[in-house]
């Protein structure tokens, strides 16, 4: 049937909207969804353009803000219709939205001003200057003054910057080139510059389809219906009682849509229109990331008379109404390079901090590094679970905790660093009476159960176990070996094949799938079933929840090779396509969530790993290197946004994500099954691999070995003191013994003011783990204080310096431990660097720039982006500075005095700050909102000095942090800001000047403002700062008030701090123990 020609007036558009809504029977609430509203507007724009309603088209573009018509914009600029140009822009951005928007409006108004001057229309030029350009004076007063001075010139081309200005036409063309680049780079125009690729008359087609459907519903449809109106539903008369043809075989309807092989377009995936209709939101639109292309030629600098970049200092601070703590938050792109400035505007950054041009080894991933060194390949641990491992998962925060499920239903929790099995649970139904009768009967007949999946929740507070018989059990984890029953769910009929956690509507949920071909979603707190997804025609093998922006969805795979995607609603699956191999397939995203992979094995043993093009629903690349016929179902995992790994052919195979060829294959010293099960930890430093004879091998890279090595230093081995040689002697210590020119030892003086606080458990000193949360309520847990009072207690080295320097203000090791960087109070950086076999200690002064005010008082790098620096200021604010774009992105306000400490937790995504106001603040590092704040618990009778500092440092677990104040040392739990441990020196003791964790977080090195005469003839010298070696837990360095730096290690005979002193005359000297806060004052250790 040919649809009628529509010549509707504009006032009939409301009827068109109503008709389109009825096409798929979408409910009223769904129409209000922004994605559908956007698509409706786009359809109307196409209709208006085809009907030649030009002015209406541009008005709707501007009012909706959904599509920026660059052609229309260019025409208006070429014609000099400045009012229309700004009116059209106002639908998409405002002057102060970001620096790109500001530059766009500035260039337009500057051009309008220059054209008025060129016409000698001084009154018009003054009007533009006052009404349009004065707004920019608050960002750059000098620039506004220079623009104003153009009024005094006979010809503004006398200005050097404008000497090449031609006529208005050529100037507009030149300006348009710059404007187009600014608009393309502006994040506010993202996804608004390209009109969707639609077939002609798409709205007409949809209306015609609706009319066809209405015609099928007629009781007596006529062969050639006469459509006269869209205002009411179509209906035919009923001559001779004729019957309507079936919708399923009616040629107008086209029958049931065929199953597509990829991501369907709008409205394609319908089983039957009369049954239900999927949400007409193309899955592509929210599964594909928006383009983030770089615009290297786009101005990123200041406003200027020429087409120049906008400086960071010209940004106008705005405070979002929902966050009073933020002074400014920019949405600017980070892909813009800087250009030269004009009019004498300085190109220096306005950041008041000294920045060091220093690259620390291991600080960031380098594309030139050897890929083979980046993934775990060294067998570091071998564990025996007691039964065959079926599934494994590392804790998301405590990355050496490994959860294991086995083929007999057992679960185990391992601390792989210490090789200790913390938890072992055999399968047991918690409440058999609440289980379904089929399960009860089945367990009586055959009690055998296997674990199909174990997995941690995103925060590590829960873990789930999916069994081969009906059940899912959820446990809560409270640290160490404290595992408690949380939920037991009779989830599916038959086996529960997979389990995952997700956060739909920001509430934690459990997702399960099973042999009954269903996918179910459960509330993780109450166990209430929230959704049931039906549509698979075979047992569901795996689930993969994910999200893009604010859209949560689930991928599922079934044993018939079908992959489907679901939203958290009851409207059916959105996509349906075939996986390579068409049998057992699992899916996983890269760590950053931008790349989708699947791994599967066919019934014939052919295995595949592929990357998917989400926008097309097609395989993007297929990775080579599998055995021709795999001997089992291949398991795989991803890590570091860079590597893929799979267990195949009695080995582990690795691929670079960007290369389809096999990178390497390792056998982990042999003993692996045909298709070993594998699992990376979150950082990709450890890899758990199932082995023969119920074994688990832990593979590690260099960082993983370093992480595991910290556990080897935790338990004191008494035999170590008798060893003839101490391994891994620091080169600093070796140099102290061999180089008389660098040695500075005084045998007879006393060393005062250094303390080593060792975390000890009085019940078992040999079982110390880098965890705090599980032990905070144990009153037997103490801090053991070891003081260094004599030179004979340690080995030390004074680092040479030949500059006139004052006291040491900050001190830090490089990540490799091969250099020490110091900052003096007169803003000089000192760097001592040495090689393992070639000692070289010479101070180097680093260049300084951007002096105060206000002064920078503290600094911390963002753990996931080295271009982001948190800078504490003397004026009590914290500036979040982006090095790449030379811009302060946010200014955090919450303290009342200068900032003295900053520390990031990558596990919790927070920044902890401390200030001279003795206040602690926790900030979300994603949006920079303040989450919590609390003042220190000062000991009774203690009043801190007016200039006292509070410093913070995170524990190795990334959940607790050390607080250092002149009156105390304390450990806080981050999420609740609860003080869980505290150590207070006696009232008459000298104030604490500084403290730090050792690299394994098992020692706290503290310095005090006591006299330090052993290294100086000046009796007023005292320790100011202390730094711990990043790899050697027992080495630290000390910065003194006279500008000198000393490095310390324990005696070779002891090997570590806190070791028991040798027995003399049948007795041992005692070391006082300092209990937790809450003990009586008389029990406190005395310094």
From TrEMBL:
<dbReference type="Pfam" id="PF21359">
    <property type="entry name" value="zf_topless"/>
</dbReference>
<protein>
    <recommendedName>
        <fullName>CTLH domain-containing protein</fullName>
    </recommendedName>
</protein>
<dbReference type="InterPro" id="IPR006595">
    <property type="entry name" value="CTLH_C"/>
</dbReference>
<dbReference type="InterPro" id="IPR048419">
    <property type="entry name" value="Topless_Znf"/>
</dbReference>
<dbReference type="InterPro" id="IPR015943">
    <property type="entry name" value="WD40/YVTN_repeat-like_dom_sf"/>
</dbReference>
<dbReference type="Pfam" id="PF00400">
    <property type="entry name" value="WD40"/>
</dbReference>
<dbReference type="InterPro" id="IPR054080">
    <property type="entry name" value="TPR1-like_2nd"/>
</dbReference>
<dbReference type="InterPro" id="IPR054532">
    <property type="entry name" value="TPL_SMU1_LisH-like"/>
</dbReference>
<dbReference type="InterPro" id="IPR001680">
    <property type="entry name" value="WD40_rpt"/>
</dbReference>
<feature type="region of interest" description="Disordered">
    <location>
        <begin position="1051"/>
        <end position="1087"/>
    </location>
</feature>
<feature type="repeat" description="WD">
    <location>
        <begin position="634"/>
        <end position="665"/>
    </location>
</feature>
<keyword id="KW-0677">Repeat</keyword>
<dbReference type="InterPro" id="IPR019775">
    <property type="entry name" value="WD40_repeat_CS"/>
</dbReference>
<dbReference type="InterPro" id="IPR006594">
    <property type="entry name" value="LisH"/>
</dbReference>
<keyword id="KW-0853">WD repeat</keyword>
<feature type="domain" description="CTLH">
    <location>
        <begin position="66"/>
        <end position="124"/>
    </location>
</feature>
<feature type="repeat" description="WD">
    <location>
        <begin position="489"/>
        <end position="532"/>
    </location>
</feature>
<dbReference type="InterPro" id="IPR036322">
    <property type="entry name" value="WD40_repeat_dom_sf"/>
</dbReference>
<feature type="repeat" description="WD">
    <location>
        <begin position="892"/>
        <end position="924"/>
    </location>
</feature>
<dbReference type="Pfam" id="PF21889">
    <property type="entry name" value="TPR1-like_2nd"/>
</dbReference>
<dbReference type="InterPro" id="IPR027728">
    <property type="entry name" value="Topless_fam"/>
</dbReference>
<dbReference type="Pfam" id="PF17814">
    <property type="entry name" value="LisH_TPL"/>
</dbReference>
């Amino acid at each position: 049937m040919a649809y009628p020609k529509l010549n509707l007036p504009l006032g009939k558009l409301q009827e068109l909207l109503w008709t389109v809504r009825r096409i798929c029977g979408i409910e009223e609430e769904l129409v209000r969804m922004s994605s559908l509203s956007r698509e409706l507007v786009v359809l109307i724009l196409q209709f208006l353009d085809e009907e030649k309603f030009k002015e209406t088209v541009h008005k709707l573009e501007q009012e909706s803000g959904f599509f920026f018509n660059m052609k229309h914009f260019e025409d208006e600029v070429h014609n000099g219709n400045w009012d229309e140009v700004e009116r059209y822009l106002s639908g998409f951005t405002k002057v102060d939205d970001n620096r790109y928007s500001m530059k766009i409006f500035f260039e337009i108004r500057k051009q309008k001003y220059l054209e008025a001057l060129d016409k000698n229309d001084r009154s018009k030029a003054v009007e533009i200057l006052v009404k349009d350009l004065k707004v920019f004076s608050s960002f750059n007063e000098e620039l506004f003054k220079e623009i104003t001075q153009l009024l005094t010139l006979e010809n503004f081309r006398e200005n050097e910057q404008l000497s090449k200005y031609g006529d208005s036409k050529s100037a507009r063309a030149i300006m348009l080139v710059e404007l187009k680049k600014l608009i393309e780079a502006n994040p506010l125009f993202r996804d608004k510059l390209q009109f969707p690729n639609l077939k002609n008359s798409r709205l007409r087609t949809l209306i015609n389809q609706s009319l066809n459907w209405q015609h099928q519903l007629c009781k007596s449809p006529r062969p050639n219906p006469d459509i006269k109106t869209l205002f009411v539903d179509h209906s035919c008369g009923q001559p001779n009682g004729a019957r309507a043809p079936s919708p399923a075989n009616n040629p107008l309807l086209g029958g049931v849509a065929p199953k597509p092989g990829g991501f369907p377009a709008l409205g394609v995936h319908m089983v039957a229109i009369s049954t239900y209709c999927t949400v007409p939101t193309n899955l592509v639109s929210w599964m594909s990331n928006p383009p983030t292309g770089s615009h290297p030629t786009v101005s990123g600098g200041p406003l200027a008379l020429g087409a120049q970049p906008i400086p960071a200092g010209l940004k106008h601070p705005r405070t979002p109404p929902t966050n009073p703590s933020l002074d400014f938050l920019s949405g600017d792109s980070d892909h813009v390079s800087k250009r030269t400035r004009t009019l004498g505007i300085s190109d220096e950054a306005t950041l008041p901090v000294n920045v060091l041009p220093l690259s620390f080894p291991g600080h960031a991933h380098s594309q030139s590094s050897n890929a083979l060194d980046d993934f775990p390949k060294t067998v570091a641990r071998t564990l025996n679970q007691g039964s065959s491992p079926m599934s494994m998962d590392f804790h998301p925060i405590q990355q050496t905790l490994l959860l294991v499920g086995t083929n007999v239903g057992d679960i185990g929790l391992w601390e792989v660093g210490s090789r200790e099995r913390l938890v072992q649970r055999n399968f047991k139904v918690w409440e058999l009476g609440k289980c379904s009768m089929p399960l009860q009967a089945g367990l009586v007949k055959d009690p055998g159960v296997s674990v199909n999946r174990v997995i941690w929740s995103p925060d590590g507070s829960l873990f789930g176990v999916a069994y081969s018989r009906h059940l899912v059990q959820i446990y809560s984890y409270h640290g160490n070996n404290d595992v408690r029953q949380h939920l037991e769910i009779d989830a599916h009929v038959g086996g529960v094949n997979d389990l995952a956690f997700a956060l739909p509507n920001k509430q934690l949920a459990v997702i399960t799938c099973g042999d009954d071909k269903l996918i179910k979603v459960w509330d993780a707190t109450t166990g209430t079933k929230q959704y049931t997804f039906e549509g698979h025609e075979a047992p569901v093998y795996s689930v993969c929840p994910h999200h893009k922006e604010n859209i949560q969805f689930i991928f599922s795979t079934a044993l018939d090779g079908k992959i489907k995607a679901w939203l958290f609603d009851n409207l059916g699956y959105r996509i349906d396509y075939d996986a390579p191999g068409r049998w057992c397939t699992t899916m996983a995203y890269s760590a950053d969530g931008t790349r989708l992979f699947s791994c599967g094995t066919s019934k014939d043993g052919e295995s595949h790993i592929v990357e998917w093009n989400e926008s097309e629903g097609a395989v993007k690349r297929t990775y080579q290197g599998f055995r021709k016929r795999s001997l089992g179902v291949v398991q795989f995992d991803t890590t570091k946004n860079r590597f893929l790994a799979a267990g195949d052919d009695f080995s582990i195979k690795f691929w670079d994500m960007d290369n389809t060829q096999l990178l390497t294959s390792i056998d982990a010293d042999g003993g692996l099954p045909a298709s070993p099960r594998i699992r990376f930890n979150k950082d990709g430093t450890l890899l758990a691999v199932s082995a023969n004879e119920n074994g688990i091998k832990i593979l590690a890279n260099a960082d993983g070995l370093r992480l595991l090595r910290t556990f080897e230093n935790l338990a004191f081995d008494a035999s170590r003191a008798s060893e003839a040689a101490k391994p891994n002697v620091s080169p600093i210590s070796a140099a102290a013994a061999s180089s008389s020119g660098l040695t500075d030892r005084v045998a007879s003086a006393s060393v005062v003011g250094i303390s080593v606080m060792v975390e000890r458990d009085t019940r078992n000193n040999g079982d110390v783990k880098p965890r705090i949360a599980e032990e905070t309520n144990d009153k037997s847990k103490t801090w053991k204080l070891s003081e260094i009072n004599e030179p004979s207690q340690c080995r030390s080295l004074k680092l040479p310096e030949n500059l006139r320097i004052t006291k040491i203000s900050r001190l830090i090791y490089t990540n490799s431990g091969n250099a020490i960087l110091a900052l003096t109070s007169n803003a000089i950086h000192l760097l001592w660097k040495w090689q393992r076999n070639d000692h070289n200690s010479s101070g180097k002064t680093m260049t300084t720039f951007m002096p105060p005010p206000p002064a920078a008082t503290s600094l911390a790098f963002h753990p996931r982006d080295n271009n982001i620096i948190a800078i504490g200021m003397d004026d009590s604010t914290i500036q979040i500075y982006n090095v790449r774009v030379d811009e302060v992105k946010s200014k955090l306000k919450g303290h009342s005095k200068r900032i003295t400490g900053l520390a990031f937790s990558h596990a919790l995504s927070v920044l902890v700050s401390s200030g001279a106001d003795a206040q602690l603040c926790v900030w979300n590092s994603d949006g920079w909102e303040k989450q919590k704040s609390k003042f220190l618990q000062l000991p009774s009778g203690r009043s801190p000095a007016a200039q006292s500092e509070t410093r913070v440092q995170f524990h190795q677990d990334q959940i607790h942090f050390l607080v250092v104040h002149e009156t105390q040392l304390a450990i806080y739990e981050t999420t609740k800001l609860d003080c869980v441990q505290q150590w207070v020196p006696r009232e008459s003791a000298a104030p604490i000047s500084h403290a730090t964790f050792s690299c394994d977080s098992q020692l706290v090195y503290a310095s005090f403002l006591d006299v330090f005469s052993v290294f100086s003839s000046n009796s007023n010298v005292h320790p100011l700062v202390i730094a711990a070696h990043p790899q050697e837990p027992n080495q630290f360095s000390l910065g003194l008030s006279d500008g000198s730096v000393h490095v310390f290690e324990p005696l070779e005979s002891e090997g570590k701090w806190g070791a028991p002193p040798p027995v003399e005359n049948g007795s041992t000297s005692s070391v006082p123990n300092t209990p937790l806060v809450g003990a009586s004052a008389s029990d406190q250790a005395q310094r």
